[in-house]
Every structure is written in structure tokens, then in C-alpha cells.
Amino acid sequence: MRKNEPFNPSHIRNHNAPTETFRRSLRNSVVPAISLLLASKLVMAAPSFEPQVNVTDALLKAENSKVWKQNPYFDDKDKQYLIAARRSDGAVAIVTRSRSEGDPKTLVFFRYFMKCGTRKQWSLFLPNAAAFNAALAHPDIDDPENRGFPLVEGSSNEMLYETVCGKNL
Questions:
Q1: 137, 75, 133: which is closest to 109 by C-alpha?
Q2: Nearest Cα residue to 161 out of 96, 97, 107
Q3: How far apart are CA 129 and CA 52, in angstroms?
């Protein structure tokens, strides 16, 4: 209130009431926090993989284990796969192995995530069982920025997808 100005009760400021700046800052901090909470809830809502086998380094190299199946695309007995885990939403975690072309004594492993009903794959070279188990804990199939790769018609991966998904196509 200025000097010589008539009294106006609407000019009296309530020091207990939040200012517009405070209200704005509260709104600007609450909205992103709620969005973050909802996004994290959606990520947590993805079902977890149920292991079909316990993937260990010994299993990866076990040549006579019955969990390994012949890859349906190849006639080569050294090209095999196993279904390591499944999820209720149709996602499947697969490990493949084959002999290195450069050194036939060396086994080479890849891990694939495929989702039955979605003709895509998420694949990566697999150095060991620890890398597979880490990928299973945080699968790239759930990363919205990683869109995977479409299956190529007639490819070995498409044949593997059709075999693994079977009746779930």
C-alpha cells in the first residue's frame, strides 16, 4: 500500500498462502514425478522370464546335454539351440551355439529374444552364461528404444522362430 492511497482490503497479502511462483514450481515438479512413476510402473509390469533351464558355462559347452536341439534350418549337428526361458506374454529367450568357422574347436554362442506373434528378433553375441543371465534380468526386448530386427523370410532365424513359437503364431 502506498502513501496517500485509500485502504483496500484486497491488497492485503496473506503470507500463509502459496505464491503463484510456488504453485507453478510445485506443478512443474509434481507432473514429471508422476510421469516417471507411471513409466516405471509400466516397465515393472512386464512379466518376468520363467527359466526353462539354468544357463551356466558348463551347460553352454555340454556337448551331450539333451536340452540342446538341432537347429531346424541346418543339417549340421553342431548348430543347435535351446529354449532358456519363456514369458507369459509370448516372449522367448533362446541360446544358439555352433562351431566357429575359423576354429572348429571353439563354440560360438548367440542369445535371441523373440516374441511369438511379433516377427522380430533381438539378438547378440553371447560370450558366457553370466552375460545371458544379465540380459535375462534386463531384456532388450522390453527397451522401447530397441525395436529389434524383423525376421527375414526363409532365414534360419525365421525357421527357429516358427519352431520355437509353434502353435503360438
A1: 133
A2: 96
A3: 14
> CA–CA distance from 83 to each of 21, 29, 42, 153 (Å)?
57, 45, 26, 21
With contact defined as beta carbons under 8 Å apart, do 160 and 81 qualify? Answer: yes
Residues 6+ apart with CB under 8 A from 31: none
DSSP three-state, residue 49: coil
pLDDT in tens, 106-152: 999 999 999 999 999 999 999 999 999 999 999 999 998 999 999 99
Query: Which residues make Cβ contacts (< 8 Å) with residue 151, sequence separation at least 6?
Result: 119, 120, 121, 157, 158, 161
Confidence (pTM)? 0.71
